[in-house]
């Protein structure tokens, strides 16, 4: 039993009540803005009787097979590419490391439609592997930042001891380092798999009529065929697949997760030695490959000089947009700020609750169920959630369906699980002996959290804030269905420009994409500057 809990004595009941109240905050948000809309849509499919015919259709299982296969392939590529970059971020003390953090985040913010077009230009042959590479391109940042957040604080003396006893660098990594990183790698892989399984724009552009996933089929059935019952049945199938994947990931984390001795990031970072230079070279190669599609987009935006950038002050050919491109950029900044603040609050509260439950007497199965529930929004079709909002939220006071708050709420739904996955592994890995020492010296539960847990998780919170902000800036799936024509975000404006004919529209779209990248870089640079002064080197 946690000594901090024992020390609380008679206050245990009050602490339990407070924990329950905290848990109601994220769970209540999840119930109203996720479970309710999704259940409403799925209920339509169940009432229409379309579930069994859809399950009996062989084409459905072909969709399921390709969806899972391309998601698994993309996850493997992203993990293999992201681990060297995570090593560079966490363990290497080299000048310019901040630039790596910036470069690795930029791909993740790009609208999926634009990245699909970029890969179509780079790899005109297309095919399933093009989809896999494009999805992995998006998600290298998830692996690199999530794993680096924990790797930067793990004690490397055990690894050095293994090498001193004769273990090769590869053996020391697989036997010492990899088990320590397993919780973060498992968390990152789960996020990447869910992102890839519900990838929309990339598959729509690169797959065409030959490669379809559950996500694109739900969209086509809902928007183009107006076949909402079949789309609802596919959404139910997609939800079941996501629950199965989350359960498998939670089981793997529970079996391999161990308490680690965390240390300062400054103590673990050093100049590379021996074979570590090969890993650094591999990380640099990954970063160069990440820049290739980005460079092609920037070059495309300048093919006609700065005409596209000047045109952002207008609305495109024949009034394609209701507002100017610059107004759409302002809308993106405003919505992303609101979504990030909301997601940080919800994510930190959820992480504290999950860790407290695990350290208490709550059964591990209950903790994993709550954890998996918070991850569900990452794996459900944005079309399902969007149309669910339109059906259900009119019953709430003020009718949120016409409110500008709807987009930040939908974006926060996507960002919150990401915050949890970045903060939770570090909180769970805090050395229990530090908490015991604080409790022995008379610190109460809240003081232990404030002075032991949260300072060690501070860098992960900062990384989650930056990561969440750029995710909200580039979010396209849910926003494309919920943004009002007079309040579009920049990704939605880009998609509308690309969907309409006219060279000016294309120029504006690629210019807007470049602007989005520059804003992202500015945000990450600002966070890096703040972090270097307040939290030290990440």
UniProtKB/TrEMBL annotation:
Domain called ABC transmembrane type-1: residue spans: 64-247, 329-527
Gene Ontology biological process terms in this record: transmembrane transport
Localization: Cell inner membrane; Cell membrane
Top-level taxon in the UniProt lineage: Bacteria
Native organism taxonomy: Bacteria, Bacillati, Actinomycetota, Actinomycetes, Pseudonocardiales
Keyword entries, A-Z: Cell inner membrane, Cell membrane, Membrane, Transmembrane, Transmembrane helix, Transport
Name by which UniProt lists this protein: Thiamine transport system permease protein
Positions of transmembrane segments: 21-46, 66-90, 102-122, 128-148, 188-211, 231-253, 274-299, 339-357, 369-393, 405-427, 508-530
Membrane-related topology note: Multi-pass membrane protein
Major site of localization recorded for this protein: membrane
Record-linked InterPro entries: MetI-like (IPR000515), MetI-like_sf (IPR035906)
CDD domains in alphabetical order: TM_PBP2 (cd06261)
Entries under PROSITE patterns matching the protein: ABC_TM1
GO cellular component assignments: plasma membrane
Similarity comment text for this entry: Belongs to the binding-protein-dependent transport system permease family.
């Amino acid at each position: 039993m946690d000594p901090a809990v024992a020390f609380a004595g008679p206050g245990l009941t009050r602490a339990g009540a407070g924990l329950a109240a905290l848990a109601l905050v994220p769970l209540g948000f999840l119930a109203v803005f996720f479970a309710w809309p999704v259940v409403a849509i799925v209920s339509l499919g169940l009432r229409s009787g379309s579930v069994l015919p859809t399950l009996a259709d062989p084409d459905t299982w072909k969709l399921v097979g390709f969806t899972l296969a391309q998601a698994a392939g993309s996850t493997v590529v992203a993990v293999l590419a992201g681990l060297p970059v995570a090593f560079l971020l966490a363990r290497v003390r080299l000048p310019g490391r901040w630039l790596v953090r910036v470069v690795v985040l930029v791909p993740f913010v790009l609208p999926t439609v634009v990245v699909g077009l970029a890969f179509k230009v780079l790899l005109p042959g297309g095919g399933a592997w093009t989809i896999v590479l494009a999805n992995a391109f998006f998600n290298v940042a998830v692996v690199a930042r999530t794993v680096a957040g924990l790797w930067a604080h793990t004690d490397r003396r055990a690894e050095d001891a293994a090498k001193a006893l004769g273990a090769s660098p590869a053996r020391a990594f697989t036997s010492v380092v990899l088990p320590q990183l397993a919780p973060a790698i498992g968390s990152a892989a789960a996020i990447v798999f869910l992102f890839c399984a519900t990838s929309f724009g990339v598959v729509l552009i690169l797959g065409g009529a030959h490669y379809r996933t559950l996500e694109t089929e739900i969209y086509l059935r809902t928007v183009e065929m107006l076949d909402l019952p079949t789309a609802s049945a596919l959404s139910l199938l997609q939800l079941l697949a996501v629950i199965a994947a989350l359960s498998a990931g939670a089981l793997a984390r529970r079996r391999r997760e161990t308490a680690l001795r965390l240390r300062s990031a400054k103590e673990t970072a050093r100049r590379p030695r021996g074979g570590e230079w090969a890993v650094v070279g591999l990380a640099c190669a990954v970063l160069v490959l990440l820049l290739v599609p980005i460079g092609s987009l920037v070059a495309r935006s300048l093919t006609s000089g700065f005409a596209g950038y000047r045109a952002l002050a207008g609305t495109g050919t024949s009034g394609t947009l209701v507002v100017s491109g610059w107004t759409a950029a302002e809308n993106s900044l405003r919505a992303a700020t609101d979504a990030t603040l909301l997601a940080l609050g919800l994510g930190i509260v959820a992480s504290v609750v999950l860790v407290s439950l695990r350290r208490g007497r709550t059964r591990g199965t209950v903790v994993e169920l709550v954890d998996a529930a918070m991850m569900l929004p990452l794996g459900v079709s944005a079309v399902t959630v969007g149309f669910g909002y339109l059906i259900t939220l009119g019953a709430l006071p003020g009718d949120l369906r016409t409110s500008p708050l709807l987009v930040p709420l939908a974006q926060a739904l996507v960002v919150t699980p990401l915050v949890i996955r970045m903060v939770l592994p570090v909180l769970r890995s805090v050395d229990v002996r530090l908490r015991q020492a604080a409790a022995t010296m008379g610190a109460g539960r809240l003081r232990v959290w404030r002075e032991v847990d949260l300072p060690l998780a501070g860098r992960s919170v900062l990384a989650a804030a930056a990561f969440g902000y750029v995710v909200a800036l580039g979010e396209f799936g849910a926003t494309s269905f919920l943004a009002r024509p007079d309040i579009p975000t920049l990704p939605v404006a880009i998609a509308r420009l690309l969907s309409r004919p006219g060279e000016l529209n294309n120029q504006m779209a690629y210019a807007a994409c470049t602007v989005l990248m520059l804003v992202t870089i500015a945000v990450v640079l600002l966070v890096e500057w703040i972090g270097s002064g307040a939290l030290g080197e990440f």
